[in-house]
Structure formats: structure tokens, C-alpha cells
Amino acid sequence: MNPFENLQALYAERPVILAPMEDVTDAVFRKLCRSVGARFCVTEFVNVEGLLRGCRNAKRKISLPEGDAPTVIQIYGSDPERLAEAASVAESAAPTALDINCGCWVPKIAARGAGAGWLRNPAAMVAMAKMVVQRVALPVTVKTRIGYGPESDMPIVDLARRLEDAGVQALTVHCRTAQMGHSGAADWSWAARAREAVSIPVVVNGDIKTADDARRALAETGCAGTMVGRRAIDHPWIFREARTLLDTGVECAPPTWDERIELCKVHLAANVEARGERHGVAVTRRHLTGYLKGIPGAAALRQRLVVTDSMQGCYELLDASREQVAARGTEAA
Q: Does domain 3-248 have CATH number 3.20.20.70?
């Protein structure tokens, strides 16, 4: 199966995709999400200038370990030629596809013309995408917002048609404007309108927080898949829950207390191995609120974990909590 057929086959599965998130969706987190049901993942977004300079961090981001598939590498930048050149470099890592970030609303990115900054000039965005498509042999996809803003100006439907004409193989639509950032509600109807205008797969993104959100988003839009971002940081089990509901129509059981503690330990160990002890322990902290949700004594445990700098110290706290949870379960029985 060639890369284009492979990508289309993946979208035929109605995937629930792990979204690109800076300093979150690294190889460690992608592997962890796959362990709880994610099949299709996107890397952190990669700065094309760093990639072309051979920056160590950019090279790390495009490195795909064995088993890290299907994974799409996402790149971002403001210069079409540099994006095309960087796409060739990223292609050498053999991802499933290459994605162009045209949706990042963060001012320091968009103000420079990268990310959602492309939405200020849709014609330039289409010309850039065509240049990237022509430079590489892999499928090229685009992730974008419905417009830059204000809300009266939503170019996404016409833009979807033009991107398809430029050779883009799939489109992910975050259903907010760039000016909205993460505020307000995502309007999935825009993904539906874009999907009706093209023959390529369209993925709906924005406010997919539960398995039922994924089900409703697909039902309401007719899109080929859904993409989950911030919710996965706190609750990676959403992939298992969404996949079960989509495939069987039945809701699966939530993660047990023991499973939550074990995931903390697995993620912590993997981050320490990849980043060193001090940094690995620190970056795992952002996940603790969600991972430990509902566990008896979670607030006190989290307060102790965030001031513990060693992996062994964290393990001891988590194991002690596990024993307390087990004892509680025995008493309840």
C-alpha cells in the first residue's frame, strides 16, 4: 500500500487522533496514549528554522522510534520556501504524512505569519501548501482554524476547496477562530460545511472532551475523524473510551484508581529515561491533576508530588497511595 492509500485507509477507520501539542506530544506521550487506545498521533509542532539549522530539539521532535506509527510530523513557519525545504528534511524520518500548522493562535507564532497567521492571507496559504505538496513524495495535510477573525469572516469553506485543489490530502479544522484562542465554544458546523465542500477527509477538532463528544462530533459533521488535544493531557483514557463507544455503541468503564496510579508511574519513568531525572519529574507534573482525579487523598498526594524532585521519591508516594487505595477497597468489600 502506498503512502497515500495508507493515509486514506486510516481515515476510513474514523480515527480519534492525538493532536499536536508543544512540549506534550513527544514520543513518550505518544507511546503512552497508544497504550490506552490512541492509534493515530501527531508530533509536537516543529519550527522549520530550527529543523533546517539542525537544532537538537527539532531533530528530537521528528525522531520516530520503532513502533511509533502511524504518526504525522507537523511543521510550522512563515516562509513558503523554508517550509517546503523543511518538509523534505522531515520526510526523511518516514512519517505517515506531513502536516502544516496553520492553526496555532499563540501571538508570538501567529504575529510572525506562521501558524494561524496564514489565515490573514488565504491565497498565500494555498500557494504555500501547493509548494510543500510539490516538494515531497509523502501526503501533505493541513491543520487550521475556521478563520483568523472576526467571526463574520470565516474563509474555511472556500479555503478547504482551494487546499484540496493544491494537493492537500486531508484537512483538520479546529472550529474556532484564531482570535478566539481557547475561549468560547467550538462550532462544529464549520467542519461539516468544509467536509461538504471537498472530497478529501476532514477531521473535526475543538471541545472533544469525552467519548460522547467524539460520537456527537462525527454524527453531526459527517467528518472522517476527530482530534483530541487538551483533554488528553489530563485523561489519555479518552482514546479507549471514544474508540469503544464508536465501535460498539457501549460506554466502557472508566480507569480504576490502581490504573491511574500505574499510569503515573509509567509516564514518570519514561519521562525520566528520555529527559533525565530532574526535567523528567518536572514535566510529568502537568498531568497529575487529571491522572489522580477521584483517588482518595488525591489533593494531598499531588501537593507532595509537585515538591518531590526524585523519581524514587515520587514512586514511594505513589506506592503508598496505592496501598491505601487497596486497603480502602478491602475494607469496602
A: yes
